[in-house]
């Protein structure tokens, strides 16, 4: 009988012992916290890339609205979108990873019944390809995430590869 009572006391002490509870709780919550951290950082990077491109398309539209509309100025405006300066740049100097002048679409809107340019639009297309002025074709720029959230969620269909597609239109003042 005494052995049975000793066993119940040991069992009661074991049930009251909470030394591994914190570790078990951390093991359950850590994957969720890692997933939240990865998701928040990717959304922050997406909006940072998007606002950078919005500012650069605005600068290029402003540049084109005050300069002659010719192939030299168009090339400079495209460099302004991609590099943040009027001249070409290396891959590492680009404002957004993966951006190139092939992603930039420059279009004009003319005054009805004349050849005079009224508006200049600088954009990065949302579609796979878009025909711009002078029959140039611009290619969409997908966002390139750091974390593969689909693999973290064990879902191959989930990906943050949304296109970055800002657009700015300004009145042309020759």
Query: What is the β-strand count?
Result: 5
Order of helices and strands: HHHEEEEHE
Number of domains as seen in the coordinates: 1
Spatial strand sequence of the major β-sheet: 1-2-5
- The DSSP helix count reads 4
Question: Could you name the ranges where pLDDT drops below 50 across 5 or more consecutive residues?
Answer: none
User: Could you estimate the helical fraction of the residues in percent?
Assistant: 40-55%
List the helices and strands and how they pair.
Elements: H1 2-16, H2 21-65, H3 71-83, E1 105-110, E2 117-123, E3 129-131, E4 137-139, H4 149-152, E5 167-171
Helix pairs in contact: 2-3
What's the quick description here?
The chain has four helices and five strands. With 174 residues, the chain is an alpha+beta fold.
Describe what you observe in this structure.
By secondary structure, the chain is of the alpha+beta class. The protein has four helices and five strands, in the order H-H-H-E-E-E-E-H-E. The chain has helices at residues 2-16, 21-65, 71-83, 149-152; strands at 105-110, 117-123, 129-131, 137-139, 167-171. Strand 1 and strand 2 form a beta hairpin. Helix 2 packs antiparallel against helix 3. The longest helix has 45 residues, at 21-65. The radius of gyration is 28 Å and the shape is rod-shaped.
